[in-house]
Every structure is written in structure tokens, then in C-alpha cells.
Specification:
By secondary structure, this protein is mainly beta. Helices cover 6% and strands 51% of the residues. The strands form two sheets. A nine-stranded antiparallel β-sheet has the order 5-4-3-2-1-6-9-10-11, covered by helices on one side. Strands 8-7-12 form a three-stranded antiparallel β-sheet, with no helix packed on it. The radius of gyration is 15 Å and the shape is elongated. The model has no long low-confidence stretch (mean pLDDT 87).
Length: 140
């Protein structure tokens, strides 16, 4: 991954055995994280698989949570906002995003595992003339 395009987010991994902090890296076409000493990578969160076995074992039976800064531009001025992400990986991937901006919370609802779809749901709720200002990794 090139450091120019790599984004790094911190968060939490939770399963039946407990919780641990994690670091997620995203570079536009690739995601990676290390959980309990095992590297997981994939093209999307729902596609994270153990790297050591050639990408065969999927990450499942867990919850990933992380926050990331996401500026919102309104009337030409950028204002800081935070996007809270909650991903449940089980038989299917359920993703929920909540944007905390200007004293309000804009929620995606459950959007399967598609980050782009969930983000678009949040975007459509923003006040007229507002849009996201930062660049999120396309991998997400």
C-alpha cells in the first residue's frame, strides 16, 4: 500500500471471546486488519479473509466498530464531522453508519455490507447544499 493513498482507522473487534482494539488500513482497493495475530485482507469489509491461508477463511461471527473523520462542506465551508461505523459479520454482512454533524446524527440504517450504499443513504439526508468533503477509500 502506498502511504499517500492509505487511510488508517482505529476501532474495536468483538466476538464471543471478548474485545480488542484494531487498526484498519484502506488504500482504495484493499482493506487489511490484524485480529488476534491473524492478518485479514480483502476488497471490502464483507470480503475480509485470512491472508495466511490464501484468503480462504472469512472473518465472521464478530462485530467491527470504528470512527473516522469525514468533513462536510456546507456553503463552501468545511466543517468537521465523524462517521461511526458498525459492521456485523455473520451469515451475512450488516453495516450501519451514523454521521455526527452539526449536533445531529444522520443514520444509514442497515445496508448489508455495501459501504458505498450506506454512505449514499447518509448523504441524501444532509441539508441542501451540503456534501462530504473528504475522500474515503474506495475499498470501504
Amino acid at each position: 500500500m502506498s502511504s499517500e493513498s492509505t487511510q488508517v482507522w482505529t476501532g474495536w473487534y468483538r466476538d464471543r471471546r471478548g474485545a480488542e482494539s484494531i487498526v484498519i488500513t484502506a488504500d482504495g482497493g484493499h482493506l487489511a486488519t490484524r485480529i488476534r495475530g491473524i492478518e485479514y485482507e480483502g476488497a471490502s469489509f464483507a470480503a475480509l479473509r485470512a491472508a495466511a491461508d490464501g484468503g480462504g477463511t472469512p472473518l465472521t461471527g464478530c462485530v467491527l466498530e470504528w470512527d473516522l473523520p469525514l468533513p462536510v462542506v456546507a456553503d463552501g465551508a468545511a466543517q468537521q464531522a465523524t462517521l461511526s461505523c458498525l459492521l456485523t459479520l455473520g451469515e451475512r454482512a450488516d453495516l450501519s453508519l451514523t454521521l455526527h454533524y452539526a449536533g445531529a446524527a444522520f443514520e444509514s440504517g442497515i445496508a448489508g455490507g455495501d459501504f458505498g450504499e450506506a454512505l449514499d443513504r447518509v448523504r441524501r439526508q444532509l441539508p441542501p447544499g451540503s456534501d462530504f468533503g473528504g475522500r474515503l477509500a474506495q475499498a470501504a
